[in-house]
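A favour, since you know our structure tokens better than I do. It will help me judge whether the discrete encoding reads sensibly. The space below this message is yours for that.
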Amino acid sequence: MSSSSPLPSQSEQPELGKKGRRQQALLQLLEATSYVSVEQIAERFQITTQTARRDIADLAALGRVTRHHGGVALALGIDVVTYRQRRIERVEAKRRIAQEVVALIPDGASVYLDCGTTCEAVADVLVQRSALKVVTCNLRAASLLAERTDFTIAVPGGFVRNADGSVFGEGAADFLRRFRFDLAIISVSGIEMDGRMADDDHQEVALARTAIALSRTVLLAVDSFKFGRSGLVELGNLRDVSLLVTEAAPPAELIPVIADGKVRVQVCR
């Protein structure tokens, strides 16, 4: 997993100067919002749009941010090599989870399908259902599901993340808000023992949070390797989840948190 280096502390860089302090503040803003337009930067820091673009260029050259048309986002939290490795790891567990998840989805349901290798495995099996309405930012999943002519598939516009073929953009969350879902199928990089869920990309997390808020049922599909692990960006808590599907029982430390959140757990047969 590639990630940007931590923000410099005052002791490490005591003489930042006005420009340095502004760029550091911009990075902190992006950590909270995932994407900021050039106009928003100019207004927030009371600078010209030309200065805002120069700040973006400086941070992009350092690998801290990714430039997009009209704005900027934090540098993506996953690289191609890492994602390909994830695709071949614990394949059998992900297939079992996918079969279990799809068995829970009624024909005709409206579904949000998250990014990630587990959700790609779900897409592979989801073609067994009929007349689904699916919204996903995962182009690989959309391509698989498009083989079913009775499915309705919606994908937000934006920029394609090379690592996994997912689409993110300034208007992706607004696009999602047009819908209401019977079910959101999400996956995460880790579930800490206090129930916090985290993933590795700010934009992916922002979409997952939006989908959770728009869904009647939230299904978390993760293999047992994710228990006790974390990620770069906090997504939420197990309390936000209706049903957890995994291939092995959660560790004893996590059971009280699951019970407190009234989360149903389904372990693959």
